[in-house]
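[recover] target loaded
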């Protein structure tokens, strides 16, 4: 049980998102330049020219390496203030340690000469209220982690320091690697008028994706091949429905796990992967054949693909491939049918093995699932819709802090302790394999390698093929060893990495398929939602949910979709499309799709 818990906690550790901070609106144009304040401190042991004002290119793309020591130690030490908005996370301290005194505080003071102290800490449930109170008082910490919405508010209010020069001077090569090149879309979120106001944390398109999970043990029993087309997938569905895959002699199985009673803003009755089979793309705006940006489900070209997907779902419902009760099922009921062996097809995402499918093995240790790419329907090669970069949070320095460059140095060290394969001390500073302690959560300013898991897949696959694990870093060796424990002894705690990181039939091998075969349609709209979108999208989303359930269950024919499209255009689509295309042209009209090749 402990190993199963460890697997689940490791997944959480690798996909964490930091608690959000709020902010008030105001007038832009009052940002303080960190290039001025960063020259006020002195540092011992620094390189020659360390105190010289920077006078060079002003983008990370133009400066491949730091111009000053990225780990230069302050002597005497400096003290910076921070906050911690989730002190109830899955971490604990050995006897004698605390949030104020621990493995991180000691390492940062010893190596960087940086002491960090907390203005306050709180459980995650209290974070929004505490931050709002703090911002209203104006008593800000030197450094904090904010979500993208609050970053925009703080920038507009003139609360952020300009980090351009500190980042150019001090960002280590590892740090800048994940803010430049194909990862530059992350940094775009913290860039204003050509200046950097934060270090962005998030995920790249390589570190996720939607896909289909299939009951492998059922497929083996029924001698079914892995499907690559919709027709082949339908043959699997028919077998799961009619050939008694659970072997109990009863007609009690169906194909697709699906629920509709707990739809949220990002769920469209069926998971993204189902629509992707039909070249329809929920939750993104993509470039159509005319070079215009349109909604991935309801745009001029996308809508016919969405229509075909809804018609096919209605066909599957009529054929019994979908539970006849799906419209009233919530996510817990959906999972219960999976765990009780009622269905064997899940349209899910890259982390399906870590949750919820790992829980199936608690009930049936012989159950097994594999991940396969979305299958080709009737339009073109199937592709998945993705953000080139998905921002989780942004590390910022507030305008009155004395040493904004210290935030960059702290980020460099965090990367080296947790993410950099050449330097990481993963078990000590991230997650302890013996007790599942996620000690990295005690640190207030964590930042992610946005391609950590995909890079892990590539490294582990190579080790798997060669039989030599000597080149694996501490984290990847841990995942590999867990996977081998499942392969060799069926230890269920190793099943999630076994079905995620290994070379064949795994979720990250599916992502590798998408990346190498250019099966990704990129989201072109990378800005925050406009006020119009925020106000009106929930209305049309509710209309869609109601229409889709009616169409799928056969209570309405597909003409209901046509009526929905008219309402969508009038209430939302026409204005939102105009806003998106105007924004696209203002930023230069160069699509991410073409830039990414």
């Amino acid at each position: 049980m402990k190993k199963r818990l460890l697997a689940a906690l490791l997944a959480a550790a690798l996909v964490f998102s930091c608690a959000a901070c709020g902010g008030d609106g105001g007038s832009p144009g009052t940002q303080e330049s960190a290039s001025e304040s960063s020259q006020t401190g002195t540092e011992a042991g620094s390189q020659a020219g360390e105190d010289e004002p920077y006078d060079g290119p002003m983008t990370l793309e133009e400066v491949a390496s730091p111009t000053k020591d990225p780990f230069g130690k302050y002597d005497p030490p400096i003290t910076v203030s921070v906050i911690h908005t989730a002190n109830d996370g899955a971490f604990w301290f050995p006897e004698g340690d605390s949030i104020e005194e621990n493995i991180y505080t000691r390492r940062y003071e010893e190596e960087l000469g940086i002491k960090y102290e907390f203005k306050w800490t709180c459980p995650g449930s209290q974070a929004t209220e505490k931050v709002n109170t703090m911002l209203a008082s104006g008593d800000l910490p030197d450094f904090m982690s904010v979500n993208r919405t609050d970053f925009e508010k703080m920038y507009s209010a003139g609360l952020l320091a300009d980090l351009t020069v500190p980042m150019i001077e001090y960002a280590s090569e590892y740090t800048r690697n994940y803010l430049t090149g194909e990862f530059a879309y992350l940094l775009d979120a913290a860039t204003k008028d050509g200046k950097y106001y934060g270090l962005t944390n998030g995920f790249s398109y390589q570190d996720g994706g939607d896909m289909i999970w299939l009951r492998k043990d059922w497929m083996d029993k029924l001698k079914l091949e892995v499907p690559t087309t919709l027709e082949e997938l339908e043959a699997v569905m028919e077998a799961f429905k009619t050939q008694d895959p659970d072997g109990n002699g009863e007609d009690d199985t169906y194909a697709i796990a699906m629920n509709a009673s707990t739809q949220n803003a990002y769920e469209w009755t069926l998971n993204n992967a189902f629509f992707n089979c039909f070249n329809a793309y929920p939750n993104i705006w993509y470039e159509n054949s005319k070079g215009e940006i349109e909604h991935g489900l309801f745009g001029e070209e996308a809508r016919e693909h969405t229509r075909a997907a809804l018609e096919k779902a209605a066909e599957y419902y009529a054929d019994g491939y979908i539970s006849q009760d799906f419209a009233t099922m919530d996510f817990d009921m959906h999972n219960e049918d999976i765990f009780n062996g009622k269905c064997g097809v899940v349209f899910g995402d890259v982390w399906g093995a870590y949750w919820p499918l790992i829980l199936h093995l608690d009930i049936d240790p012989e159950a097994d699932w594999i991940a396969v790419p979305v299958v080709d329907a009737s339009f073109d090669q199937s592709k998945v819709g993705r953000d080139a970069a998905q921002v989780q949070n942004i590390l910022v320095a507030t305008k009155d802090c004395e040493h904004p460059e210290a935030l960059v140095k702290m980020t460099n060290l965090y990367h080296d302790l947790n993410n950099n394969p050449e330097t990481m001390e993963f078990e000590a500073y991230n997650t302890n394999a013996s007790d599942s302690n996620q000690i990295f959560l005690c640190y207030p300013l964590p930042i992610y390698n946005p391609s950590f898991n995909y890079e892990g897949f590539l490294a582990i696959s190579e080790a798997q093929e060669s039989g030599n694990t000597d080149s694996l870093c501490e984290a990847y060796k841990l995942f590999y060893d867990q996977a081998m424990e499942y392969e060799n002894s069926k230890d269920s705690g190793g099943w999630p990495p076994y079905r995620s990181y290994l070379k064949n039939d795994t979720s990250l091998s599916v992502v590798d398929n998408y990346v190498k075969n250019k099966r990704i349609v990129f989201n072109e709209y990378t800005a925050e939602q406009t006020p119009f979108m925020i106000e009106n999208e929930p209305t049309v989303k509710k209309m869609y949910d109601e229409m889709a359930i009616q169409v799928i269950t056969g209570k309405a024919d597909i003409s209901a979709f046509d009526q929905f499209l008219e309402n969508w255009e009038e209430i939302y689509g026409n204005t939102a499309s105009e806003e998106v295309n105007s924004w696209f042209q203002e930023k230069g009209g160069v699509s991410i799709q073409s830039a990414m090749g």
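[recover] notes: The first helix runs from residue 2 to 14.
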